[in-house]
Write a structure and sequence with these properties.
about 100 residues, mainly beta, SH3 type barrels, two-stranded antiparallel ribbon, 10 strands, about 0% helix
């Protein structure tokens, strides 16, 4: 079970975008794509067969999961994530600072 999932609100703790907040769009192993974070410019050639125009396209690049922290809505700060097994056998993510469950 991953500590960070698609749709989670995260805060960037390292890199050029440090301090910015965003939503996780895609998770691929240890890498995350966060909305409007780590924007790169990609120079692309036009492809008329695919209907793709050429030019400079800005898009989000992946960022390593060690450079983000899950945003705790109660405090508004980044928080570490742990796991807890409930009485009915379900495994849920919990904030380390408060112990409250993320997955209800």
């Amino acid at each position: 079970m991953n500590r960070i999932k698609k749709g989670d609100q995260v805060i960037i703790i390292a890199g050029a975008d440090k301090g910015k907040k965003g939503e996780v769009v895609r998770v691929a192993g240890e890498k995350l794509v966060v909305q409007n974070i780590n924007i790169v410019k990609r120079h692309t050639k036009p492809n008329p067969q695919a209907g793709q125009p050429g030019g400079i396209i800005e898009r989000e690049a992946p960022i390593h999961s060690s450079n983000v922290m899950l945003l705790n809505p109660a405090t508004g700060k980044g928080d570490r994530v742990g796991f807890k097994v409930l009485g009915d056998g379900r495994k849920v993510r919990v904030f380390r600072s408060s112990g409250e469950a993320l997955d209800a």
